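Notes from hallway chat w/ T.B., transcribed later so I don't forget. T.B. wanted the structure written out for a chain they're using in a teaching module, and asked if we could keep both sequence and structure tokens in one place. Agreed to drop them here.
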Amino acid sequence: MEGINPVVQSQVSPVGGMPSGGQVPPPPQRNLKKPLLIVVGVLILAILGFLAYRFVLPMFGGGAREQTITWWGLWEDEAVVAPLIAEYAQANPKVKIEYVKQSPQDYRERLTNALAKGTGPDIFRFHNSWVPMFVSELDSLPPEVMSSTEFSQTFYSVILSDLTTTNGVVGLPIGFDTLALYINEEIFEKNGKSVPRTWDDLRQTAIELTIKDEKGKIEQAGVALGRTENVDHWQEILALMMLQNGVRMTNPTGNLAEVALTYYTIFSSVDGVWDKTLPPSTVAFANGKLAMYFAPSWRIFEIKNANPNLKFKVIPVPQLAKDKPTDPDVTYATYWVEGVWKRSENRQAAWNFLKFLSTQEAQQKLYQNATTQRAIGEPYPRVDMLPTLAQDPLAGAFVSQGGTAKSWYLASRTFDGPTGINTQINKYFEDAVNAVNSRTKVSVALEAVAAGVNQVLSQYGLAR
């Protein structure tokens, strides 16, 4: 046939295509190495693609994966935060924020249990004094979200101190609060009194503004101090006095601590400007029967609701008389922050959302939203926003004290449960105040406090 090489043709058997001569050729050699390499390569690319989709893309805003972030709030109604959530969702359509307002009752225990079960929220609110209780569950603020330098320049120094652990910063604040002094303006104006700036002034003013009936019953109290059963926020007040007096709170013994504790009780035990028969101090102030009262900012809401016509203002807490004008003031911070759960699958997206909430623009909107429901919003935690509220007759005192604020584990109404760090430490100081009011020697009462504080702090590796 044309085109067939005759030599080749002669080698082909007419039956079965077997070469002539009866010799069986070896089977053709297949190269399996190349297909195997292709399969391995495809698998590697698939794995890398999955890892990038699962872990790398979420670091840059969620990538193509939709993310749902659960946020446990505590005090703010959903109406306050919803506009900010909607704004963030518009710019980040792959991220959905579910805000769940929690009841304060048993909050710390419920949060602890949820985290232990692996069903915790991505973002949760915690008190500034709770870091030792949650440090193992708190994620560290990624430097690409906010560097340590930016954090320290943005927020008050007490916030940096409270939230810094060996693993870095473990929270972002979207509010701030301090202890301040509330003044009944009508009582002060009627008696021609100036607001006190030192503790000596406050004590004398309290004596002069206390009114008793013919049987010695207090009809108008000068100040709510000296006791624990009916002085709201006695924990923060006592801690403030001790810190101002230079007491080392991890070992509150010695002369400085004795002087501070004695001074706190003297308003009831010696001066008689407050006693155990009176209603809780918040109620007494709202009723117009108390000239001076200590509290954080959120008590304004209760007072306004109870007595909308009460004329009062809020000023910074008194200080010790200064030996030198340059001696620093000391104030007391008690506030809540937002943390990200270390085991959350959406950590980076959660931090990005919190960074958005901490911006000036978002902070202003949160504050304005809150003021549609109450007298003031949560004071700003940002140093650069101090001028915005500094002159406000209600909110100004709380932010003006931010730069000089310190904090510790003495804190009221944190709802941390019977085993919480606040509840346990509060109890030891409560026993000491009550013991001194019952004529126990101050040094003896404080020895018991120091032993108890050491025991509690030892649970968290914080003992002296």
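Follow-up for T.B.: The CA atoms of residues 457 and 463 lie 5 Å apart. Might be a good example for the class.
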